[in-house]
Amino acid sequence: MMEGSLTLDKMLERAEKLFPIKQIVSRTSSGITRYGYKEMGERTRRISSVLKNLGVKKGDKIGTLAWNDHRHLEAYFGIPSMGAVLHTINIRLSPQHIAYIINHAEDKVLLIDSDFLPLVEAIKDEIPSVQSFILLTDDEELPDSKLEPLYSYERLLDQGDPTFEYTEDIDENDPAGMCYTSATTGLPKGVVYSHRGITLHSMAISLADAAAISESDVCMPVVPMFHANAWGMPFASTWLGSTQVLPGPKFTPALLAELIDQENVTITAGVPTIWLGLLKELETGEKEYDMSSLRAVLCGGSAAPLGMIRKFETKYNIPFIHAYGMTETTPLVTLSRLKSYQDDLAEDDKLAIRSKQGYVVPGLETKVVNDTGEVEWNGEDMGELLVRGPWIADSYYNDERTKDAFQDGWLKTGDIVTIDSEGVIKIADRTKDLVKSGGEWISTIDLENVLMAHDAVFEAAVVGVPHPEWQERPVAAVVLHPNTTATKQELFDYLKPQFAKWWLPDDIIFMEEIPKTSVGKFMKAKLREQLHDQLEV
Amino acid sequence: MMEGSLTLDKMLERAEKLFPIKQIVSRTSSGITRYGYKEMGERTRRISSVLKNLGVKKGDKIGTLAWNDHRHLEAYFGIPSMGAVLHTINIRLSPQHIAYIINHAEDKVLLIDSDFLPLVEAIKDEIPSVQSFILLTDDEELPDSKLEPLYSYERLLDQGDPTFEYTEDIDENDPAGMCYTSATTGLPKGVVYSHRGITLHSMAISLADAAAISESDVCMPVVPMFHANAWGMPFASTWLGSTQVLPGPKFTPALLAELIDQENVTITAGVPTIWLGLLKELETGEKEYDMSSLRAVLCGGSAAPLGMIRKFETKYNIPFIHAYGMTETTPLVTLSRLKSYQDDLAEDDKLAIRSKQGYVVPGLETKVVNDTGEVEWNGEDMGELLVRGPWIADSYYNDERTKDAFQDGWLKTGDIVTIDSEGVIKIADRTKDLVKSGGEWISTIDLENVLMAHDAVFEAAVVGVPHPEWQERPVAAVVLHPNTTATKQELFDYLKPQFAKWWLPDDIIFMEEIPKTSVGKFMKAKLREQLHDQLEV
Question: Does domain A8-251 bear CATH number 3.40.50.12780?
Answer without folding.
Answer: yes
